[in-house]
Amino acid sequence: MKQERKAALPRYGEYNCALKYLVEQGFETKCILPPPLSRRTEDLGAKNSPDLVCTPFKTTLGSMIEALEAGADTIIMVLGACRLNYFGELQEQILRDLGYTFDFINLSIYNTGKKWDILRALKGINPRCSMVKAGKALYEAVQMIEHLDDITSLYYQNCGFDPTGTYPKIYRQFISDMYAAQNLAEIREGYRNASRAFAEITLHKPQDPIRIGIIGDYYTVMDPFSNLEIEQKLADMGVEVHRLMNITNDMLRNSEKNKQAKIREFSEYSMGASSTSDLWQAQNFAERGFDGLIQVKSACCMPETDIMPVLANLSQDYKMPVLYLTYDTQSSDVGLTTRLEAFYDMVEMRKKVAH
User: Which of 15, 24, 156, 255 stands 20 to 30 A from 246 (CA)?
Assistant: First the structure.
């Protein structure tokens, strides 16, 4: 690496593999990966956060503390579509009050709608880097995100029907390949290897399996630790799990304007953040005849709370049951399993009656 600087971003599912790639290949700077999220991460964040702030604030703050403990001297905070845009400023002050010394790059400040402004902000990591090289790495990192979302979707739709039990092993190898990738060829090779390995497995899937769609706020629904592995729990029950909320679907392929037009029957105006996307996804699942819908949301997430009455209307119109789950730092894994099992039993009985 040309620079001695050590940059880190808080953990966000497995998307850190793409962020690591961008920082190291595009800005030629060492990327420090914080430890995987854990109860300690949550405790660190909750201890040093305002009580009523949403759970992702606490989780990302705890991850920043662990990144600094791991040797990072530069923290990068991503931008968002809700109060996430304000996280960075407050989190930086909290970390400095705790006595940490570091540089802080808050991408929300550069959220002008122009991609090059974000790259210019990131150039603060390494002022001597080439913007052409950074742009190329950004393109390749986006390719990695698309492959990650594709393989992840395929995994949760099918892993519950794999009699060999090798789906998790293939998925873990794919994730490892993404973190280790040094160029676009290696990214594509890892994707091809995982796709081929999945295709070689003969699934024992019923002709009409129980299908459940999952929606929710950007952070909680996409981060397995934050939602207590809800997708894996459902898959282990023999459910075909679908989650349209990911970076590829929500930020790269579908515009906010088109989604709002689609859901006009249920909501004429956007309620902020993930609200429009969630309603669009919920209607998509309902129109495709899904057996159930689960809304995953962080405690104190106002956009997700606001859409609950709309989801109730959609549920009534399409006869699709909805389970509402709210997560905070005290959420119980046992409690979640009990609620999922009850929801599964209800959905299964409805399906049998319908047939």
Answer: 24
Tokens standing for 276? Answer: 């429009």
Radius of gyration from C-alpha coordinates of the chain:
21
106-123 pLDDT, tens digit each: 887 776 666 677 777 777
Q: Average pLDDT of 127-142? A: 90
Is residue 269 over pLDDT 60?
Answer: yes
Average pLDDT of the chain is: 90
Of 69-73, 97-101, 238-242, 326-330, give the lowest mean pLDDT range.
326-330
Q: Which residue has the tokens 């999952």?
A: 214
